[in-house]
Design brief:
heterodimer; A: about 400 residues; Butyryl-CoA Dehydrogenase, subunit A, domain 2; Butyryl-CoA Dehydrogenase, subunit A, domain 3; four-stranded antiparallel beta sheet; about 40% helix; B: about 375 residues; 11 helices; 9 strands
Chain lengths: ~400, ~375
């Protein structure tokens, strides 16, 4: 299908379902049925089997027509990670059951991966899943679960065989968060709010039909999910002074009385580095479009984390006396945000929240290992637990 | 901020090599691999400049690089600054001791703005590689910093290799640019930090030679220095890429404590960070060359140039310093070529405006005033 034909199809859809007079949920389900939800997905699953590159035009046409959207910010994990994983590794039945309500924003997803004892070394996870008839019984504790308090469903990795080395004894599941034994507790973070959770799993039953991939093949499936997470970072174009730099540049322009040569030099260093990162992203997207695999994705995430942290720190200094105050609602009160906005709230929030940028989605230390090993070809870290049955690894 | 400074309409400028870029790169790299051994570059520091003349002759005439930026109407290739950037990246990778930047980029761009008849003749000769020119300003001159000569001009790059000196002279119209045969001026070689771009102190009679740029040459000189600044970033990128690749290669071979030392995380992480910065330099240098090709007089060209200059200048020095350190003792020896790159990188950082100068000017250009 040519871009012009696709455009015609969107226009015909909009004529048939006028956004102004069509109820939101009806509109979204109709859009899914028409294959215009994500055109790079297969027919029957909200797509038309077209190239990914055609999708942004479709989004732009719907946005320009004032069409209701599926509130993508509230379901980032579902849209960015669960959907591509289900498509690649899930059964046809699972795709039929879960993709449509996921895309329409009716079922919100979270990710039960990290554990108190398994962070960077995710494959060392200890949550156990034991077969029992047509089900699995799960016990364990997960942590750093964004949005678990709003989630209807989760993706879960659990250990199904402790007698083999760690990577081989993991299985990937879908979990209904409303099941008895799922206990979500807020994990309050340094900003005062609780966007993350601890999730305790006690004798949670999961039907075998909610297993994704083979028993023991969960590490491969999880890596598919994590690769999608990294692709999502730095993947779209931003204008000059978009993002965090724009916020800090505004602070600078609004506060001439705070200007000093030292602050100015730091601002301009960060301005240059942000612009270099922006151009690097432009080049990375061109590499991806040209079919050249972009190992620089990990490098982009490293840069993004450092720049956010340095920019938000500088912003507080530019604000001076005002940078000492955390007066935006709700201050230090613990609230449960429905989504995260790195550039939102106030300067103190942004400074504190940015500390998470070098942890979430792969710590900067792990990302440096990835760049060094997979891009530069330097030797891998020694892995003393590689060929040892999981249950014999000291922990 | 006005539209010209948002960069929005330039978002899709190609930052990857085209097929033509790859062919040009391979031709230059192959030539340098044969004709520019690092031992020959090191010999210049000991007074043996035998490498320089034949290398430049070959690049200028056999590969036809001297006329790359000379417009077709004056007998040149009329190629764009993207091609010149590819050449400079390869020249940087070999620390090649040739006056491509000073003659084929800076002097050529100055002349191409508004040449007189004599200027046209000179351009045609430059395009054919029959003559080589140098603008008589200190190498440290920033793009708006050119001054009329008064007595001796110190630390001029490219003058030793040039047979024609472009001398800015004070005149009634502002700045007059005169082409003076090198034989009619005094060119004293300087013992330079970077002998692969050896400097000279030049003394020329302000009344000598012929006028080669019509009217006030201030804008022409600035255009030449702007092109030089934008494209120097690609040379710095080439220097940095060599340093990264050579250091990574060495750390994959070198063993201590029974291990390949490149497996130690303290070193891996430094190289991962350096790689990230070099990737940034690649994007910044390509963008500067691409914008210069599209709109040499636009605001965005000065912004892109200063971004690339600020970033690539410091990055090349960092890459060379890391190369010396991570090679251990061997990196400190005369025998290993790392020192050639360190000297070039540090001299390049001081050339055509310091990084801090570019950042300060950027602040003015984008409305972030001190």
């Amino acid at each position: 299908m040519t871009p012009a034909e696709l455009r015609g199809r969107v226009e015909a859809f909009l004529a048939e379902h006028p956004p102004a007079t069509t109820e939101r949920s009806v509109f979204l389900h109709a859009r899914y049925a028409a294959g215009l939800a994500w055109v790079h997905f297969p027919e029957g699953h909200g797509g038309l089997g077209l190239s990914r590159g055609l999708h942004p035009m479709v989004e732009a046409l719907f946005a320009a027509a004032g069409a209701p959207d599926n509130n993508p910010r509230a379901n980032g994990i579902g849209l960015g990670m669960v959907a591509p994983t289900l498509l690649a590794y899930g059964s046809e039945e699972q795709c039929r059951r879960y993709l449509e309500p996921l895309w329409c924003g009716e079922e919100i997803w979270c990710q039960l991966f990290s554990e108190p004892g398994a962070g960077s070394d995710l494959a060392g996870l200890a949550t156990r899943a034991v077969p029992d008839g047509d089900s699995w019984v799960v016990n364990g504790q997960k942590v750093w679960t964004s949005g678990a308090h709003n989630a209807d469903l989760a993706i879960l990795v659990a250990r199904t065989d402790p007698d083999v080395p760690k990577h081989r004894g993991i299985t990937y599941f879908l979990v209904d968060m409303k099941e008895p034994g799922v206990d979500v507790r807020p994990l309050r973070q340094i900003t005062g709010e609780a966007e993350f959770n601890e999730v305790f799993l006690t004798d949670v039953r999961i039907p075998d039909a909610m297993r994704v991939g083979d028993v023991g093949d969960g590490w491969r499936v999880a890596n598919g999910t994590l690769n999608n997470e990294r692709v999502a970072i730095g993947g779209h174009a931003v204008p000059r002074e978009g993002g965090m730099l724009g916020v800090v540049a505004r602070s600078w322009r609004d506060r001439p009385e705070q200007h000093t040569p030292e602050l100015h030099d730091r601002l301009m260093r960060l301005w240059v580095e942000t612009e270099v990162a922006r151009l690097t992203g432009q080049r990375l997207r061109q590499q991806l479009a040209a079919g050249q695999p972009g190992p620089a994705g990990a490098a982009m995430k490293l840069t993004f984390a450092r720049l956010h942290q340095q920019l938000t720190g500088l912003d507080l200094e530019i604000r001076g006396e005002e940078g000492l105050r955390y007066e935006s609602e709700p201050g230090w009160d613990m609230v449960r945000p429905s989504h995260v906005d790195f550039t939102g709230r106030d300067a103190v929030y942004r400074y504190l929240r940015a500390k998470g940028n070098s942890i979430e989605g792969g710590t900067s230390e792990i990302l440096r290992n990835i760049v060094a090993e997979r891009v530069l070809g330097l030797p891998a870290e020694p892995r003393v637990d590689k060929d040892v049955p999981w249950k014999e690894v000291p922990r | 901020m006005n539209d010209a400074t948002t960069g929005a309409d330039l978002d899709e400028l190609e930052l990857l090599d085209s097929d033509d870029d790859r062919d040009l790169r391979a031709a230059v790299a192959g030539f340098l691999a044969d004709r520019c051994p690092s031992g020959g570059v090191a010999a210049i520091y000991d007074g043996d400049r035998a490498l320089v003349e034949p290398l430049w002759r070959g690049l200028a005439t056999e590969l036809g690089l001297a006329g790359l930026l000379v417009p077709e109407e004056y007998g040149g290739a009329g190629a764009g600054s993207r091609d010149a950037a590819v050449v400079l990246e390869e020249l940087g990778r070999s620390v090649a001791p040739v006056p491509f930047l000073t003659s084929a980029v800076v002097a050529t761009t100055v002349l191409a703005q508004a040449p007189t008849d004599a200027g046209r003749e000179l351009l045609a000769d430059l395009a054919e590689g029959r003559r080589t020119a140098a603008l008589v300003v200190p190498l440290s001159t920033s793009l708006s910093g050119a001054r009329p000569v008064a007595g001796t001009v110190r630390s001029v790059a490219g003058a030793l290799e040039a047979d024609t000196l472009l001398v800015p002279v004070a005149s009634a119209v502002g700045l007059e640019l005169r082409a003076v045969p090198a034989a009619e001026a005094t060119t004293d070689p300087v013992v330079s930090l970077d002998m692969s771009r050896q400097l000279a102190d030049v003394t020329a009679d302000p009344a000598a030679g012929t006028v080669v740029v019509t009217g006030d040459a201030t804008a022409a000189v600035r255009a030449g220095l702007l092109a030089g600044t934008a494209l120097l970033a690609s040379e710095q990128l080439g220097v940095a890429q060599w340093c990264l690749a050579t250091t990574v290669g060495y750390l994959k071979e070198r063993r201590q404590f029974g291990r390949v030392v490149g497996g130690f995380q303290a070193l891996k992480h430094r190289l991962a960070d350096l790689y990230t910065s070099v990737e940034g330099a690649t994007a910044a240098a390509r963008y500067a060359a691409a914008v210069l090709a599209v709109d040499p007089a636009g605001d965005e060209t000065e912004i892109a140039t200063r971004i690339a200059a600020a970033w690539c200048s410091d990055l090349a020095v960092l890459a060379a310093e890391e190369a010396v350190q991570l090679h251990g003792g061997i990196g400190m020896t005369w025998e290993h070529p790392a020192h050639l790159y360190l000297k070039r990188a540090k001299a390049d950082q001081l050339a055509l405006g310091l990084p801090g100068h570019h950042r300060a000017r950027l602040g003015e250009l984008v409305g972030l005033v001190p």
